[in-house]
Specification:
The chain has 166 residues and is an alpha+beta fold. It is built from eight helices and four strands; from the N terminus they run αβαβαααααβαβ. Helix content is 44%, strand content 22%. The relative contact order is 0.20.
């Protein structure tokens, strides 16, 4: 199912925008490419699409970066009050089992599809007439791991800037 509600409402008004920003939510949207297509359709002739703070596609990350990210997530999760449940979910997901009725699996939709495919987003937007750049960087909820990962140059998150070609 496409996520068209916002784009449809905006197009009915005939309005166009200079910029659309997607801040840290694409990883929760099952059809994020459809949503981005719709968002691009409401941009004016010089419009820009800017997305940031979504997880890199996991298999595009280096092994150290992926392991370090998982360790940071685990350390943060311990203090969220559901460490045992989170560990059980991780073990289940490692076996490839995702539950359609699990609030956790659906809220953390990115785990079902291996992160967010930054290259697929770039290819999509380039096909729609945009010039794109992707910036990878380190980000975690863990106060302990954030400065360490940044100092080590770990990359697990991305920002994408897309400008319409004139």
């Amino acid at each position: 199912m496409r996520c068209q509600v916002a784009a449809d409402a905006l197009l009915k008004k005939g309005e166009r925008y200079d910029i659309v920003v997607a801040n840290s939510f694409l990883h929760h949207v099952p059809d994020y490419l459809g949503l981005i297509t719709d968002a691009a359709s409401v941009l004016n002739q010089h419009g820009q699409f800017f997305s940031f703070q979504d997880p890199l596609r996991y298999d595009s990350m280096g092994k150290f970066d992926r392991v370090f990210s998982l360790a940071a997530y685990a350390s943060w999760r311990v203090f969220k009050g559901d460490a045992v449940g989170a560990l059980r979910r991780q073990i289940r997901r490692a076996r490839g089992v995702y539950l359609e009725d699990s609030i956790h699996d659906n809220a953390e939709y990115h785990v079902k599809r291996n992160g967010v495919d930054q290259l697929a987003i770039s290819r999509l937007l380039e096909g729609l007439g945009f010039d794109c750049s992707i910036e990878s960087y380190w980000s975690t909820q863990s106060r302990i791991f954030q400065p360490v990962g940044a100092a080590l140059g770990v990359e697990n998150t991305f920002a994408l800037i897309a400008r319409k070609r004139v």
